[in-house]
Amino acid sequence: MIDTFPMPSPSASSRRWHDRVVAAAVLVGALLASGASLAQTAPKPDWTLQDMPSQSGRIFLVTGGTSGMGYEDARALAAAGARVVIAARNPERGQEAIEKIEAEVPNAKVQFEAVDLASLESVHALAQRLNRTLPRLDGLINNAAIMAPPARGVSADGFELQLATNYLGHFALTADLLPLLRKSDAPRVVTLSSVAIHRGRLDLDNLQSETYDAYAAYAQSKIACLMFARELQKRSDAAGWGITSIAAHPGVAVTELVARGPGLDSTQGRQWSAMKDQLQTAAQGAIPTLYAATAPDAQGGAYYGPTGTNEMRGPLGIATVPAAAGDAATAARLWDATEALTGVHFP
């Protein structure tokens, strides 16, 4: 059940944030219309939550917000004044996340909505509830993921489980929430990719990973996420949806992905445990996403992440798009294939 929160009037800082975003969007639109190329501007390397502008009066949806980076996203956005909807599978964990945030953030406006991203029926049901109850959606953070389960799983709709959870569910959710996003003055969609994409490829003839390699399937799902984020920006520009679509990745952060995927007793799990002290915390891993979701200077179509060794950790910057994810024709084919698989169509 959704709690109803009174929406405060935007603060002066929120209005300034909106004005800067609109001005940037007008400039970008003019450059694109004139055929000029737009070079990406690197973010401030030491950007932190203290640099985040007020999010008072704004509404965000964070998938997978009960733990890891998703929880850090939800907590930080609530602390900045936003109303936050956490969407995840487990209501008990959702309640625990809400209680933790409310204990840390006085007057936090946060609520839980159940969704199984591996079920299109569940995704559509969530979108219907939100379209009915929210006045608009200012930010959608497509964060939830599973990583490298040892055995090939299949979703309720018959899709390989990592592809279904990490990519197909978010594609469908974004399409379903597009009307709500378009009610915002400056809507953003942030989709999470992974450093794992540098060791993978997208095979349009084997999207379902029939010959299963756990890590190859994970990498493919995250390549698809990156291609989706970039293609969404391209199509928004062409169709006038007004969406700013950005991709981000956390580097390698200490979360529950390994424990819930290959397991802590796997080779990957033992390596991960041995390296824990060298990895990003979940809060550090959330920084690229939060920058993409809130910074006035974040650019549509960009890809943000750490810039240290192999992009595993370090200062915030522009992440590397591998050749496997950079081909525009393949991105368009993936989009068409995804619409065919899911039965979900953008306008």
Describe the secondary-structure layout.
Blueprint: H1 12-33, E1 59-63, H2 68-79, E2 83-88, H3 91-104, E3 109-114, H4 120-133, E4 139-142, H5 161-181, E5 188-192, H6 214-239, E6 244-248, H7 257-260, H8 267-275, H9 282-285, H10 287-294, E7 303-306, E8 316-318, H11 323-326, H12 328-342
Parallel strand pairs: 1-2, 1-4, 2-3, 4-5, 5-6, 6-7
Antiparallel strand pairs: 7-8
Helix pairs in contact: 4-5, 5-6, 6-12
How does this structure look, described?
With 347 residues, the chain is of the alpha/beta class. The protein has one domain: NAD(P)-binding Rossmann-like Domain (Rossmann fold). Helix content is 44%, strand content 11%. It is built from twelve helices and eight strands. It has an eight-stranded mixed sheet, sandwiched between helices. Strand 4, helix 5 and strand 5 form a beta-alpha-beta unit. The longest helix is centred in the middle third of the chain and has 26 residues.
